């Protein structure tokens, strides 16, 4: 007793404990957690009853604080304390609650804070597991405290209910009955209309979780809570007097899940819809919350009822927000999260995404999707829903329709377009469709015509495209001859052309489609005198005559029973260009000229075809008709039209077998900057000579044809500033290119990487100054001379060349001719260089690189005639040679040079495979590559990337072994820079890894591998005794790695070897030893004459290791 009375810690609270409590008030969670951990650790270590009592009292009292951040730290600490100290009972806690948590004044906020503290104490008892250890009387007391605290404030009712549900979540049914349900059951024996949201939510959750314990029939007199007799009362509870704080109440999600899986889904929702007569933000948010949950959880048995969920009242209010509903919060200057409009728009867009996601289910039938579309687009929705909401839900649903669904929706949109149906405004009120709604119907029809499911249904396409053609071309309705406005006609014409946007896989179907459309014009439209008079006023006489010529030509071709591919090509082009005779003036002009050229080309083709059929020897020459045809196709591609682009691609595939080197050369010449006919070299002159107005008109016409007329001017004007900013950002790159070009030309014949200002003559210096000044002057003029028109013209040229590249890609799809492929290398490279000099050709540059990759991957050829090894050698030299290119340009082309070099080697294998070469006679290609490899190690001006040699050494090419001895010689040479030696070892490692991958080819070159390894061992032994040969540690590591890889290759490929790998590793280690032994001699010069020998030592280091630093040009 004496010890306890003299033991002060038992009577006083430990000072450090008070400090730890201060951490619980921190704003950061990390500090709070540290404080809680320190408090528990202190109490467990000291076992001071006074400390425990003080801590418990303070924690309980602090739970009634009016600052939420304070309560979280104290609550977490109390839960942990109750878990660690088993001697604390519920009775002690309840006594502390009575003493420490009571409202001294009559303040409403104080009453709320204290009551919340009571709820938190109960929550701590639940979370800590103390509730399960308590007596029945204590359990009852806790639940009573929780109930009383929840009754103090309406918002506390929700908190108390959720606290209890959190505890119930981890209980089994038996414990739930014993601890919870027997104590709270009396509260729920009352009519449904006396429930509030929290009590209803509690009953919904526990009845779902414990259906055997919670018998709804005894409580409410009906088998389920959501019963048809109770729907009205439940909706009153959910939707009456909803405040913003209750919008996110969990009852809405719970009831949405249960409704989605129950039989009363539609009845319940229609009752909710009856509350949505006028705008109420909170009520609408609640409705969206419920409906969103229903769509996410809808049961498969309720799928057919989904369209009924898009109810009239709900969707009318839904669309009002997107149409710019004015609310009080839009006027007040409030935070963004308090803006009614922004809040509703975000929630409604999320809902549309949920609907689209729900309709992706495989169990959703096409008829359900059709009914949903009717609801969204016709009634109660709007046909312009996609534009109103900015959502892609309509396209998403249409994409999943089957053929019957596509046809049903097409009929619906046809009625809108022809005005044979009415728009329902409200009950018993209808109106005619507005023009903008008809235009949207035409657009949707074009999407349906291009749908994947009707790709081969030509009759369906013909039927609806004829309707669009009547509106777009002739400004008349297909049935009632109702006049159409020019604006509406232009928009529908765009929709008509969009029907051709899908890829044409069935050529016969395309011919039938185009033939039917043109015959429809000739037979059913042009024969009507009033329509023909209107067309003669609208279009020129030449235009009508051109149409007649076209029809006569097509009739002549159509008479052939069996049509060749070329016949189909002419039909497709003639019919399609005929449809463009009714397009924009610019397109009409090109269509007219192309039709006349096609007429001449077809006549020539028939003559040449006849002669060839009769065996006329004069037809051994190239058929000129294909060259004319290519010119026509290029002319058509100059029109900025996605439709014509698709058509040209289609017919070009049919012409593939008739293509000749000359015809492909015509296509390539459009891309080659050095070609005289190439607009890339003449664009500046032609731009100056062309009329500004005509250029603007042509651009506008091409934009209109592609359906971008409305926004093109705005986009261009807005984008011009952005383009200017981009140009300014890329200015240093362009300037550096210009300067590098000058410096590269100045040092073309010099063996140095840089210009030494001390060594150039005065005359050379003056020339260099003039060249640099000219580069700066031209660059400055080019920058200031840019205009909006220049950018437009360059964009048009770039787009045209991209369309031309499509033809090259198509040609490369099959097995092309080798001479044509090799002939593409130089012009494609020149075009790429040209694009790299101007950032406005970035898109074309990327497209070119893609085509170059496709070309380099071609493995099979229809013919290798007219190609010899000497020709391939010339192309390889041209690719590798730096020429007049600047350093910067050459390095930027590194990947292209590599791709073409491997392609040329592959071509040589195809040629040499058919020729029996003499033994031990190296191919000229190998000699060139050997020289290049030697230059790579010894010549500082060699700019080829190391990947160039890696790619060649890892090819399946037997002559690659001829390059390896050069690598071995140079990696052990004193004349080679240190970093080049390292790269050489990396090349050998890559070579052997390639052998490991190509095990089948490895056996064929086994003798060469043995010869290479003998050379390697000999070279390694030679440098062992060479004290002047200095290496670095990294070099030693790489060589060891190489030896280990050689060993693994021999083991994996089962190739015999003469190498003693252990001995080789020892030799390499001795190289390292020599380095370590001689290192001090280098690092510590005799007599400290460091300054005197500085220059000499620097030159020695450069010769044996690192690259020299470039000497800067001094400015005068």
Account of the 3D structure:
The protein has 1116 residues and is mainly alpha-helical. Helix content is 69%, strand content 1%. The chain has 55 helices and two strands. It has a two-stranded antiparallel sheet. α48 (946-953) packs parallel to α50. The longest helix is centred in the middle third of the chain and has 29 residues, at 585-613.
What is this entry, summarized?
With 1116 residues, this protein is mainly α. Among the domains are: 226-400; 732-930 and 938-945, no CATH class; 954-1116, no CATH class. Strands 1-2 form a two-stranded antiparallel ribbon.
Mean pLDDT across all amino acids = 82
> What structural class do the secondary elements suggest?
mainly alpha
Spatial shape: flat
- Give me the side-by-side strand order of the main sheet: 1-2
| Main beta sheet | 2 strands, antiparallel
Our count of helices gives: 55
Q: What would you report as the Rg, rounded to the nearest angstrom?
A: 42 Å
Helix content: 55-70%
DSSP strand content: under 5%
Oligomer: single chain
Overall number of strands: 2
Q: Are there runs of 5+ residues with pLDDT below 50, and where?
A: 1-11, 610-620, 680-731, 745-754, 1073-1116
Quote the distance from N terminus to C terminus: 99 Å
């Amino acid at each position: 007793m004496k010890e306890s009375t003299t033991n002060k810690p038992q009577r006083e609270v430990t000072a450090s404990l008070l400090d730890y409590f201060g951490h619980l008030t921190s704003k950061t969670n990390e500090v709070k957690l540290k404080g809680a951990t320190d408090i528990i650790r202190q109490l467990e270590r000291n076992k001071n009853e006074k400390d425990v009592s003080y801590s418990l009292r303070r924690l309980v009292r602090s739970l009634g604080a009016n600052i939420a951040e304070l309560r979280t730290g104290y609550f977490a600490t109390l839960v942990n304390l109750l878990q660690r100290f088993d001697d604390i009972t519920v009775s002690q806690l309840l006594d502390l609650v009575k003493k420490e948590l009571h409202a001294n004044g009559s303040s409403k906020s104080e009453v709320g804070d204290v009551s919340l503290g009571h709820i938190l104490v109960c929550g701590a008892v639940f979370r800590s597991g103390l509730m399960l250890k308590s007596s029945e009387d204590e359990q009852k007391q806790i639940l009573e405290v929780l109930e009383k605290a929840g009754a103090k404030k309406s918002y506390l009712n929700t908190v108390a209910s959720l606290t209890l549900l959190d505890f119930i979540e981890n209980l089994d049914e038996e414990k739930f009955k014993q601890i919870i349900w027997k104590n709270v059951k009396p509260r729920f024996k009352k009519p449904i209309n006396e429930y509030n949201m929290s009590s209803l939510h509690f009953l919904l959750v526990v009845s779902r979780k414990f259906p055997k314990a919670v018998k709804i029939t005894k409580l409410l007199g009906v088998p389920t809570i959501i019963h048809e007799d109770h729907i009205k009362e439940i909706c009153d509870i959910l939707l009456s007097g909803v405040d913003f704080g209750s919008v996110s109440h969990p009852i809405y999600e719970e009831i949405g899940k249960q409704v989605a899986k129950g039989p009363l889904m539609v009845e319940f929702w229609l009752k909710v819809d009856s509350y949505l007569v006028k705008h109420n933000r909170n009520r609408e948010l609640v409705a969206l919350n419920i409906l969103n949950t229903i769509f996410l959880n809808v049961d498969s048995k309720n799928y057919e009822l989904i369209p009924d969920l898009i109810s009239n009242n709900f969707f009318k209010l839904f669309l009002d927000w997107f149409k710019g509903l004015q609310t009080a919060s839009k006027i007040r200057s409030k935070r963004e999260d308090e803006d009614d409009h922004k809040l509703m728009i975000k929630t409604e867009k999320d809902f549309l995404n949920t609907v689209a996601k729900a309709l992706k289910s495989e169990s959703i039938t096409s008829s359900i999707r059709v009914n949903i579309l009717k609801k969204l687009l016709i009634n109660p929705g709007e046909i312009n829903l996609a534009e109103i909401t900015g959502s892609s839900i309509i396209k998403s649903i249409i994409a999943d329709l089957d053929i019957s669904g596509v046809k049903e929706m097409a009929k619906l949109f046809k009625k809108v377009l022809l005005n044979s149906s009415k728009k329902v405004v409200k009950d018993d009120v209808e109106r005619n469709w507005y023009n903008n709604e008809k235009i949207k119907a035409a657009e949707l029809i074009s999407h349906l015509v291009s749908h994947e499911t009707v790709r081969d249904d030509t009759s369906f396409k013909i039927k609806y495209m004829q309707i669009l053609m009547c509106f777009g071309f002739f400004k008349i309705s297909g049935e009632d001859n109702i006049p159409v406005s020019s604006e509406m006609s232009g928009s529908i014409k765009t929709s008509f052309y969009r029907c051709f946007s899908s890829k044409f896989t069935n050529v016969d179907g395309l011919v039938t489609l185009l033939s039917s459309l043109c015959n429809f014009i000739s037979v059913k439209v042009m024969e009507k005198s009033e329509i023909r008079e209107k067309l003669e006023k609208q279009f020129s006489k030449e235009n009508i005559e051109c149409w007649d010529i076209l029809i006569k030509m097509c009739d002549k071709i159509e008479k052939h029973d069996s049509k060749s591919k070329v016949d189909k090509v002419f039909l497709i082009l003639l019919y399609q260009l005929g449809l463009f005779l009714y397009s924009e003036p610019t397109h009409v002009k090109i269509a007219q000229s192309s039709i006349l050229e096609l007429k001449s080309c077809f006549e020539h083709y028939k003559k040449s075809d006849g002669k060839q059929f009769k065996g006329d020897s004069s037809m051994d020459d190239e058929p000129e008709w294909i060259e004319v045809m290519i010119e026509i196709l290029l002319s058509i591609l100059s029109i900025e039209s996605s439709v014509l682009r698709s058509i040209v691609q289609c017919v070009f595939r049919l012409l593939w077998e008739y293509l000749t080197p000359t015809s492909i050369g015509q296509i390539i010449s459009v891309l080659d900057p050095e070609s005289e006919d190439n607009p890339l070299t003449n664009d500046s002159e032609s731009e100056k000579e062309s009329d500004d107005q005509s250029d603007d008109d042509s651009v506008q016409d091409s934009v209109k044809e592609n359906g971008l007329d409305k926004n093109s001017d705005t986009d261009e004007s807005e984008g011009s500033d952005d383009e200017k900013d981009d140009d300014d950002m890329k200015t240093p790159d362009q300037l550096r290119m210009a300067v590098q070009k000058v410096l590269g030309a100045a040092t073309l014949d010099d063996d140095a990487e840089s210009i030494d200002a001390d060594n150039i003559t005065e005359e050379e210096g003056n020339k260099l100054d003039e060249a640099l000044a000219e580069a700066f002057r031209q660059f400055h003029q080019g920058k200031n001379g840019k205009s909006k028109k220049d950018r437009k013209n360059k964009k048009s040229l770039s787009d045209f060349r991209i369309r031309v590249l499509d033809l090259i890609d198509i040609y490369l799809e099959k097995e092309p001719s080798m001479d044509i492929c090799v002939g593409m290398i130089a012009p494609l490279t020149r075009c790429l260089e040209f694009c790299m000099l101007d950032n406005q050709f970035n898109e074309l540059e990327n497209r070119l690189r893609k085509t170059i990759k496709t070309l380099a991957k071609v493995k099979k050829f229809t013919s290798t005639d007219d190609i010899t090894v000497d020709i391939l050698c010339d192309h390889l030299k041209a690719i590798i040679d730096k020429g007049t290119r600047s350093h910067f340009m050459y390095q930027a082309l590194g990947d292209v040079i590599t791709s073409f070099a491997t392609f040329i080697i592959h071509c040589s294998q195809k040629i040499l495979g058919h020729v029996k070469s003499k033994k031990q006679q190296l191919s000229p290609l190998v000699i060139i590559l050997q020289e290049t490899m030697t230059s790579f190690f010894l010549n500082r001006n060699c700019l080829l990337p190391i990947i160039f040699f890696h790619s060649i050494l890892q090819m399946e090419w037997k002559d690659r072994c001829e390059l390896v001895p050069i690598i071995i010689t140079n990696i052990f040479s004193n004349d080679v820079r240190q970093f080049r030696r390292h790269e050489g070892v990396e090349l050998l490692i890559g070579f052997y890894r390639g052998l490991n991958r190509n095990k089948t080819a490895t056996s064929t070159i086994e003798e060469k591998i043995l010869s290479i390894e003998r050379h390697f061992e000999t070279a390694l032994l030679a440098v062992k005794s060479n004290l002047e040969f200095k290496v670095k540690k990294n070099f030693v590591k790489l060589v060891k790695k190489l030896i280990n890889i050689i060993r693994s290759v021999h083991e994996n490929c089962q190739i015999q070897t003469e190498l003693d790998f252990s001995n080789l590793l020892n030799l390499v280690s001795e190289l390292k030893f020599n380095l370590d032994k001689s290192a001090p001699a280098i690092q510590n010069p005799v007599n400290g004459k460091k300054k005197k020998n500085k220059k000499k030592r620097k030159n020695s280091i450069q010769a044996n290791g690192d690259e020299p630093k470039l000497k800067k040009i001094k400015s005068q």
